[in-house]
């Protein structure tokens, strides 16, 4: 028998300290990465010295930080001590070769793990994430075998814990059973008052409220797909979105009755059935729906009603933000909903968590929260709209443990007045995308240790990245078979070699992110828009006949396989022969104390090649525009070609429903003082200041008398 004093052995095994994680707020990320979690910033950070920096100098988590910790440099006496302690604690260790072999193997494994931990500081996290990913793939394979949809998972939750809270909204709580019955009533009301059948599409125009979820589940029970209309759309854009889906029924919330009335004549001509969620409606061509739901039966819907639904059947139509034109309807299949639902589980969300959502349900992020809650069997706390002032009050009210963010929501939270209760909450995790690195740190400093899980993906794409390590600034790790290829900004197309194939970008070089289209990673495209769908496909990328999905995003990868977002292709522009990333410039501008928001874009200047940089700014309340200070700031932190030549001061910057800046109209308006009522400024290198742009100066720029 072998008697081992484990406590003594473990004391002797001295492992090096864990490398600093990204949530260590004392760390700094080089270049612009401290300012933007979405950029590969090549420009120096405010507070750093000198000009442009190597983006890999003093990189967070770089191998140089751990060079002194290599096992090969550990004293031999330390390792000998460990071995002798193990032998001394084995009664028959010396005379029992098999026992010695076991302990030596054990020791070797520990030393090897220690070596890996030093050499590859994210090794264990990579392994853990790979295991989670493998489990997801296994679960998906079982889902494929059974042809289950997310509805089947929901019905399973109803059976297992019918009375568990599923939706928390305002002062009401709705259990899984409540939601099941309400969705049954919706489905039966539609059966009785419409001619919809399996495979049809119904458009819904709702804000965040339980009825949104009940209607969607009711449609899935009928084997129908849902077109989730953006409630910010109006008139022509709204009609375009409705037509894209091919829907023959529209259900709208009562608060959007007037919005629907604008397009009602066209809907009537197309014989579309229109319902409004109200008890009374006198508008011709509209019917009430609330009364019909109340009168309907809550009996379960027979499974044979949806017997032909498959995993690749359309489940939802979600619309792109429309920042570059009219929105496109991305087709999400039932399989894609499963993929979205597994995001929470891969990050460690459990059935006991409460997930807080105040972002639109019509958006992919809302759908990810909703389906993820079903997959986990957890609880969803829902708010009608994002409110920075009520955010933490809601978290305390509903005992929220996981929050969702997108775009600028974290910055809005950090902009609120500080309160003693800022850290009085149970939130342990934040899942989302698009947070700047400086805001990331400020958020953690103020609201406590919350594990931030940054994501990258698109509604229609077949690629997704996740930053499971928590490293500030990165959008993910490079573990899956995607590619970043060289891209010609001026020609707006990938660079190809003499053989006609694309060329992969080097480490540290920004390029176009692409993902191979396959049976396991399909790209469905846009509804009724084959031209736009084909635009997102790249052919003959690395070999003849292959196909890749074009994300339209520029990203870069560092030497440790961390991936960083740089810019959208349409947003990056060329000036003076250089590429200018709008996100990088925006992030530099917003570090000025007086600037609240910055929307950077390129404008055409007659007689000039490329586009000159222009920034629409929203100043902080009560702050004047400081032309001299702004000039000094951009001159210090931006190379000459990246400095905005023009500045436009606006009271409010136009954004989408998910806080993305709209640029199309600003680009079209350019910098014409006779057509723009906002204050305009031009960079004056001679006076070292941004000066007001007059009509006379504009004419001089156009004629070439003023050189930019």
UniProtKB/TrEMBL annotation:
InterPro entries reported in the protein's UniProt record: AMP-bd_C, AMP-bd_C_sf, AMP-binding_CS, AMP-dep_synth/lig_dom, ANL_N_sf
Keywords tagged on the record: Cell membrane, Fatty acid metabolism, Ligase, Lipid metabolism, Lipid transport, Membrane, Nucleotide-binding, Transmembrane, Transmembrane helix, Transport
Keyword flag Secreted: no
GO-annotated biological processes: long-chain fatty acid import into cell
Catalyses which reaction(s): a very long-chain fatty acid + ATP + CoA = a very long-chain fatty acyl-CoA + AMP + diphosphate; tetracosanoate + ATP + CoA = tetracosanoyl-CoA + AMP + diphosphate; a long-chain fatty acid + ATP + CoA = a long-chain fatty acyl-CoA + AMP + diphosphate
AMP-dependent synthetase/ligase domain ranges (all copies): 158-495
Superkingdom field: Eukaryota
This protein's name: long-chain-fatty-acid--CoA ligase
Taxonomic placement: Eukaryota, Metazoa, Chordata, Craniata, Vertebrata
Gene that encodes it: CEP152
Enzyme Commission identifier(s): 6.2.1.3
Species name: Esox lucius (Northern pike)
Family stated for the protein in its record: Belongs to the ATP-dependent AMP-binding enzyme family.
Domain AMP-binding enzyme C-terminal intervals: 584-660
TM region positions: 101-120
């Amino acid at each position: 028998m072998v008697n081992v004093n484990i406590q003594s052995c473990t004391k002797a095994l001295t492992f090096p300290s864990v490398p600093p994680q990204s949530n260590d707020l004392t760390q700094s990320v080089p270049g612009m990465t401290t300012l933007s979690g979405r950029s590969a910033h090549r420009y120096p950070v405010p507070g750093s010295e000198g000009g442009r920096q190597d983006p890999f100098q003093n990189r967070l988590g770089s191998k140089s930080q751990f060079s002194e910790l290599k096992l090969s440099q550990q004293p031999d006496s330390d390792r000998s001590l460990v071995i002798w302690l193990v032998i001394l604690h084995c009664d028959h260790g010396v005379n029992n070769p098999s026992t010695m072999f076991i302990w030596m193997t054990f020791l070797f494994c520990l030393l090897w793990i220690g070596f890996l931990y030093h050499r590859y500081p994210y090794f264990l996290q990579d392994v853990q994430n790979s295991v989670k990913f493998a489990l997801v793939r296994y679960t998906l394979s079982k889902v494929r075998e059974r042809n289950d949809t997310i509805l089947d998972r929901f019905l399973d939750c109803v059976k297992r814990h019918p009375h568990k809270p599923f939706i928390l909204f305002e002062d009401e709580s709705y259990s899984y059973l409540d939601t099941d019955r309400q969705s049954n009533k919706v489905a039966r009301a539609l059966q009785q008052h419409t001619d919809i059948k399996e495979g049809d599409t119904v458009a819904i125009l709702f804000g965040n409220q339980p009825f949104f979820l009940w209607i969607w589940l009711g449609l899935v029970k009928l084997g129908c797909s849902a077109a989730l209309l953006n409630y910010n759309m109006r008139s022509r854009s709204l009609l375009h979105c409705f037509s894209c889906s091919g829907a023959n029924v529209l259900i709208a919330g009562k608060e959007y009755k007037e919005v629907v009335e604008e397009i009602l004549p066209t809907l009537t001509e197309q014989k579309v059935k229109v319902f409004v969620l109200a008890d009374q409606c006198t508008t011709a061509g509209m019917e009430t729906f609330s009364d019909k739901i109340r009168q309907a039966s809550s009996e379960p819907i027979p499974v044979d009603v949806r017997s032909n639904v498959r995993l690749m059947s359309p489940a939802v139509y979600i619309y792109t933000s429309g920042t570059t034109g009219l929105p496109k309807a991305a087709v999400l299949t039932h399989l894609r909903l499963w993929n979205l639902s597994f995001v929470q589980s891969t990050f460690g969300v459990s059935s006991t968590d409460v997930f807080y959502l105040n972002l639109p349900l019509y958006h992919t992020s809302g759908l990810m929260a909703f389906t993820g809650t079903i997959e986990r069997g957890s609880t969803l706390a829902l708010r009608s709209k994002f409110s920075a002032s009520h955010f933490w009050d809601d978290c305390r009210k509903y005992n929220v443990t996981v929050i969702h963010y997108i775009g600028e929501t974290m910055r809005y939270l950090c902009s609120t007045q500080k309160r003693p209760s800022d850290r009085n909450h149970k939130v342990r995790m934040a899942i989302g995308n698009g947070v700047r690195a400086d805001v990331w740190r400020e958020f953690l400093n103020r609201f406590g240790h919350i594990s931030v899980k940054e994501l990258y993906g698109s509604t229609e794409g077949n690629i997704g990245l996740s930053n499971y390590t928590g490293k500030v600034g990165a959008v993910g790790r490079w573990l899956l078979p995607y590619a970043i290829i060289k891209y010609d900004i001026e020609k707006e197309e990938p660079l190809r070699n003499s053989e006609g194939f694309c060329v992969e970008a080097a480490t540290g070089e920004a390029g176009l992110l692409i993902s191979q289209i396959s049976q396991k990673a399909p790209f469905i495209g846009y509804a009724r828009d084959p031209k736009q769908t084909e635009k997102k496909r790249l052919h003959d990328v690395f070999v003849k006949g292959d196909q890749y999905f074009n994300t339209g995003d520029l990203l870069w990868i560092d030497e440790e396989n961390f991936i960083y977002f740089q810019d959208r292709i349409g947003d990056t522009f060329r000036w003076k022969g250089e590429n200018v990333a709008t996100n990088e410039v925006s992030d530099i501008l917003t570090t000025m104390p007086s600037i609240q928001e910055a929307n950077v874009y390129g404008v055409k200047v007659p007689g000039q090649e490329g586009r000159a940089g222009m920034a629409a700014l929203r100043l902080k309340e009560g702050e004047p525009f400081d032309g001299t200070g702004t000039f000094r700031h951009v001159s210090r932190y931006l190379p000459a070609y990246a400095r905005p030549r023009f500045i436009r001061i606006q009271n409010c910057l136009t954004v989408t429903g998910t806080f993305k800046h709209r640029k199309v109209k600003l680009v079209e308006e350019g910098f014409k003082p006779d057509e723009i009522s906002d204050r305009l400024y031009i960079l004056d290198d001679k006076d070292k200041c941004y000066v007001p742009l007059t009509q006379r100066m504009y004419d001089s720029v156009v004629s070439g008398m003023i050189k930019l």
